[in-house]
Amino acid sequence: MAKPLNIAVAGLGTVGTGVVRLLAENAKVLERRCGRKLDVVAVSARDKTKDRGIDLAGVRWFDDPVNMAKAPGIDVVVELIGGSGGVARSVVETAIKAGRAVVTANKALLAHHGTELAMAAERKGVPLAFEAAVAGGIPIIKALREGLAGNRVRRVYGILNGTCNYILTEMRRTGRDFEEVLEEAQDKGYAEADPSFDVDGIDAAHKLAVLSAVAFGARVNFKAVHVEGIRHVTAMDIAFADELGFRIKLLGLAARTDAGIEQRVHPCLVRLGTPIAHVEGVFNAVVAEGDFVGQAVFQGRGAGQGPTASAVASDLVDIARGVRVPTFSVPAKALDRARPVPMTRHTGAYYIRLMVTDRPGVIADVTATFRDQNISLESMLQRARDPKEAVPVVLVTHETRESSMRRALAKIAALDTVQEPPRVIRIEEP
Ligand SMILES: NC(=O)c1ccc[n+]([C@@H]2O[C@H](COP(=O)([O-])OP(=O)(O)OC[C@H]3O[C@@H](n4cnc5c(N)ncnc54)[C@H](OP(=O)(O)O)[C@@H]3O)[C@@H](O)[C@H]2O)c1
Questions:
Q1: pTM to 2 decimals?
Q2: In sequence order, what DSSP letters do the residues of 61-89 get, joined into one string?
Q3: ∠ at Cα 383 (378, 386), nearest 5°?
Q4: Residue ranges of the chain with pLDDT lower than 50?
Q5: Are 298 and 276 in contact (CB under 8 A)?
């Protein structure tokens, strides 16, 4: 039997304790699969006295995870502290420098420093693995990098943030507005006390930047991601979308075109009947489109102790077996510096809701503005009629350029019959 793989775990929170538990509970099956034991030999967290409900007898404790990362007798450092810089980054950099394999679940770190870390790891000849960083328990990194390696991937997109999907699902199910559902999600532990990383789309953008690097063999370019969150989605828009045959989902989308790589995170209307429309609650889903495979859909739990530990364990199994693959699908030196495609060049259909004064001529003004920008309308909905109050008017456009849409909306917003800023949600067709 080969010598055990000696593992050091930095961070014993939700994911860290899950990893230690999984490695203990599934020790026998993992040993059979790897032909060697996977032993946790060292751990580090802030509070040594905290009862974490895991057996750490015989495991070396480090107050400083950076010291642990370079301590002798360690093969792999698992970074589960979190954060785009600070101690997490020092742990990973130190481990690589010391010639240790690294496993991390830290999408923020990879989104900001992924390319340079991949280069450092490959220079040292050590693996840098991160299955848990995107879509939790769904093995999407492996699927893209290995399972779909024969394809040119044209587009990859999905529901990458379970908190947002839970909130949008509950808003639709109960007809309640964002703030109320967010509060409930916080009470249930589905949303953080400070929810901005999730609801403002940043977490999904971190994951998308990593996903698109893997899908396209390109440098991680988080700054190029266009990001909008879900705070402006209302129960009224969800109900109108339903009536039109759509669901509203926060999607992360990356596409490779002749112009470069487009990366965007924003709420989308997706047609009922498409796989992504029916992914509800805290679940995540990713759709990859390859030239030979066609469309492949992956769904599962995107966060939580068990699913995330499962993903970390798969990386550890690869390392124990000696499997080596380039970090972002191609050798780091060969990563593409693809041009980012700005959002103004995006083309697609749009859902627009206006709150207008109910008087003759209003719709004519609005449609004239769209006509002036060469935007054609597919449908229009107007339900309530009340001469005293603002009434909603919903318009669905055919495919158009984002820049034209922005010009039209600026003019429409300035009409004195339009009482609130227009609400706009892009429509995403499969
Ligand atoms: N939670 C999920 O479902 C999930 C899913 C996918 C990816 N991730 C990623 O996994 C990583 C960990 O997330 P988590 O939810 O497990 O976080 P967490 O519960 O907040 O745990 C963080 C751990 O890091 C330790 N820590 C913080 N600062 C430290 C320092 N300076 N030195 C040593 N230890 C330190 C904490 O120690 P104490 O316990 O002593 O305070 C804690 O054990 C993050 O990158 C996150 O984005 C999480």
A1: 0.97
A2: EES-HHHHHH-TT-SEEEE-S--SSHHHH
A3: 130
A4: none
A5: no
